[in-house]
Amino acid sequence: MDSTQLHVAIFSSPGMGHLIPVLVLGNQLATHHNIKITILTITTNSSSPEIEFLKKKKNIEIIHVPSVDISHLIDSNTKVLTQLRLMVREALPGIRSVIASMNHRLDALIVDIFGTQILPIAQEFNIAKYVFHTTSAWALALFIYLQVLDQKTEGEYVDLKQPLEIPGCKALRPDDVVDPMMDRSDQQYHEYLKLTIEYTCFDGILINTWEDLEGETIKALRSNEKLQQGLKVPLPIYPIGPLRRTVEITERDEVIQWLDKQNYESILFVSFGSGGALSSQQMIELAWGLELSQQKFVWVVRPPSDGDPDNAYLKSNGSDTRGTFEYLPEGFLTRTKDMGLVVPMWANQVEILSHSSVGGFMSHCGWNSTVESLTNGVPMIAWPLHAEQKMNAAMLTEELGVAIRPAVLPTKKMVKREEIQGMVRILMDTKEGKSIREKAKKLKISAENALSEGGSSYNSMCELVKDIRTR
Ligand code: UDP
């Protein structure tokens, strides 16, 4: 490392959905800006293809901070956000000692949404500090405005009769608020509020989105006075997305080989993220819906969860590929053997979405999955489960017109097989589906433009690097 080379650490909180965008950001900064990157993670899963890929790169080091046991601090009602905050809090001494023992001084520390408690360590070592907000600009706006909403709203947000007005954004239906806002008496809500205060102490916020996708909201984040009230001080906003995963393909796996044999845009890909789980009954209904639709599919199946689906997230392990098919209707695999591929637990999602045989994605609308679908021009069936996914589903259907969604909220009511069958047919085989697909393809081009030299996200990333250098 020469003395002029910048050194940036990026912290990822536990969970593959958090780690993946951090790895991709690190790779971009190392590859295109020649920055030495240290990734700090307390995730227990070390077998992601990205990790293996990045370990071989010269400018990148991945450090696993010792994992922590929080079992004595939680009970069965402790929500996922509270658990994530506790994990990071407990890991702080480990994180501090890793930073203190680094051979090369850090020029900046970037933390993801749940890593903001590291702030005092960045202050102690006098390092520039940024938050990487891995979801949409819309979710960021809501998040920042929460301080104001908290003051002026009586009762529960979900009981409001009117949509929530967030400056510069589409109004948000009370049903679609993020999970931590569903119950104001839960500790998770208070942790979320604390997070929003911690954000205001950083030097800037990175978002995995792009100007053409969320221009109005980005503009409001930068200049709307009411929204800025939530931030207290104006913070630079860096829309640097879409972050694109590049995994080295060493061999074409079974799924890709199967896709190679299928017709152009004929396959529906079904997956609910790194930890999304359906109830046992919903899973059976989904299987029947797919079978009745007669649409060819690839389905990543995870064991159902009949408790709080939220809690399935932290228990998930992306590398676990034990067979999980016992939960499917009897005879399903035999009856669908020529029309579908059922993959246990984990698939190479980006490779699948970029395959020309894939024409639709039934997704839980995690932001990474959303971005991956859009950057491949794949239209979606939006099936939100937790976190901010209902907001993402609303944006995809009502604002961007690149998805359809069930009439009921899948977290509240069962989506029946006939409705699933109908949605699949609409997306894959109608004029409406075709028009949705065309819109998704336009967004693919818009994403490419944002990332190309001189594009909005390209420029934003350069500004970020310049800011780090100046500080
Ligand atoms: N992912 C994958 N294979 C799977 C499931 C998930 O590669 O079988 C990746 C997916 O491509 C995305 C991330 O895991 O990059 C999931 O992030 P997202 O924000 O969509 O949802 P989360 O898992 O955090 O709910």
TrEMBL record:
<dbReference type="InterPro" id="IPR035595">
    <property type="entry name" value="UDP_glycos_trans_CS"/>
</dbReference>
<protein>
    <recommendedName>
        <fullName>Glycosyltransferase</fullName>
        <ecNumber>2.4.1.-</ecNumber>
    </recommendedName>
</protein>
<dbReference type="InterPro" id="IPR002213">
    <property type="entry name" value="UDP_glucos_trans"/>
</dbReference>
<keyword id="KW-0328">Glycosyltransferase</keyword>
<comment type="similarity">
    <text>Belongs to the UDP-glycosyltransferase family.</text>
</comment>
<dbReference type="GO" id="GO:0008194">
    <property type="term" value="F:UDP-glycosyltransferase activity"/>
</dbReference>
<keyword id="KW-0808">Transferase</keyword>
<dbReference type="Pfam" id="PF00201">
    <property type="entry name" value="UDPGT"/>
</dbReference>
